[in-house]
Amino acid sequence: MIDARYQAFDAVVQTRSFEAAARRLNLTQSAVSQRIKLLEAELGQVLLVRSKPVQPTPAGRRLLPYVAQLRLIEAEAARALAGDGAHAPVRLSVGVNADTLATWFLPAVRQVVKEEAVVLDCVVDDQDHTHALLAGGDVLGCVSTRPDAMRGCAVRPLGVMRYLCVASPDFCARHFPRGLTRQALARAPGIVFGRHDDMHDLFLRQHFGLDAGQYPQHVVPSSEGFWAMAAAGLGYGFVPAIQIAAQLSDGTLVDAAPGHAEDIALYWHHWQVQSPLMAKLSDAVADGARAVLAAA
């Protein structure tokens, strides 16, 4: 079983309160506090800021990924000892971007999730920021655009996700009768996913000299809602080609910027030391991505 001191630290971080952690662990608040003090004394680091809510210190944040791994190993050990009988599902937290989740990720991990009785906790963020979730201990693996491994982690290339700038034929006829021009783009409403989505901004700045704020844009933080808004003729934006193959084929959407596809290389990050179950999930992610994404 996970060391009681680490268990107390984990509970306080998750509940952000000594009182709530005590209730979760069926202990007194004093007992939780004492266990945290013993852990801090052993490590020689202050791990928690005693504020409301309680926050981990920088040292505490560095400890979080290892505590998450301990929690997973404990769950898998309990499952192994239970034998072949019924056992509780094991929770695996992963960081993914919305487009990955909407396209290839779930088909890739489906078999492992079903056969191993896994429950997934999918934490969604932009692919340029998911590695921060791994570093902070929020997830055990993540899909990211970062090619280099973080300390204590390993990285596996997954392939390239190709994005096309698409719109409905009617939208293109109304807004881009002469193709994409700086003047037309300054008036036509674009579609962006959210505050971390800079693909649209970079495209217009690089090719047309338009900076953010110089053109209107819808904000649609939904992968499916994004292309649906484009199909409805309300704007134009960058969508994964594999997500809209049918719409491109039947003419619901068209490539508004031929020759200007954006290729995003994706990588799977995970801790170097993985539990057997997490290793299976990592293999499934890599194999599933390889079958769908273009080679880097």
Automatic annotation (TrEMBL):
Entries under InterPro entries matching the protein: ArgP, LTTR, LysR_HTH_N, LysR_subst-bd, WH-like_DNA-bd_sf, WH_DNA-bd_sf
Residue ranges of domain HTH lysR-type in the record: 1-57
Keyword GTP-binding in record: no
PROSITE patterns: HTH_LYSR (PS50931)
Organism domain of life: Bacteria
Keyword Kinase attributed: no
Pfam families: HTH_1 (PF00126), LysR_substrate (PF03466)
Keywords: DNA-binding, Transcription, Transcription regulation
Gene Ontology molecular function: any one: DNA binding
Protein family membership: Belongs to the LysR transcriptional regulatory family.
Name of the protein in its database record: LysR family transcriptional regulator ArgP
Organism, as annotated: Denitromonas halophila
